[in-house]
Write the structure tokens for this entry.
Amino acid sequence: MIDEGLKNELARQGVVATSVQELYNWGRSNSVWPLSFGLACCAIEMMAASMSKWDIARFGSEVFRPSPRQADLMIVAGTVTKKMAPQVVRLYNQMPEPKYVIAMGACAISGGPFKQGYNVLKGIDRLLPVDIHIPGCPPRPEALLHALITLQARIAAEPLTGPDRPRHLRADAPSEFPVPEFGAHDLVPPKNDLLWKPAPVVRPG
């Protein structure tokens, strides 16, 4: 690793010194392409983030791809019903690695105001690995931009080697997850046990 002081001095002289890891992650973090996909009212806020007032293009993410095979970011924007959950997982499985998930809004995180409904999934993290959660009902476009910046910082810091390397660089890590099917009373399986486990209930007394 080059000394940071020497690196800054070389930069003042017009010489840019970097590493393959920094260059690789710089390119990836500044070209995150979201899937053109929305579920409910949060999708309107997601669309607004691409308009001129907020301009998601400033962060290299203006290319909303119509095909999951050309996207590396899934923004789960809105209520995930159990009817739509298999389709969401299927789209995720068709996305190439490295890929990321943002759960946008209370519904995508926990079911939101529809949490008690028998037909609503209580959070997409039961079926998919979520990288960033955006609370709110609905969250504003600024919140989505903040989540995108947070994701970019995370991508830029990912090591290419070692035990802390990301999922797409580990042969033992899955890139596809089981697509749930419609059972008699619920989805089968209702959750991915590798990703989500219920929090233990602690009763007073």
Remarks:
- The radius of gyration is 19 Å.
- The beta strands are 73-77, 100-104, 132-134, 181-182, 187-188.
- The longest strand covers residues 73-77.
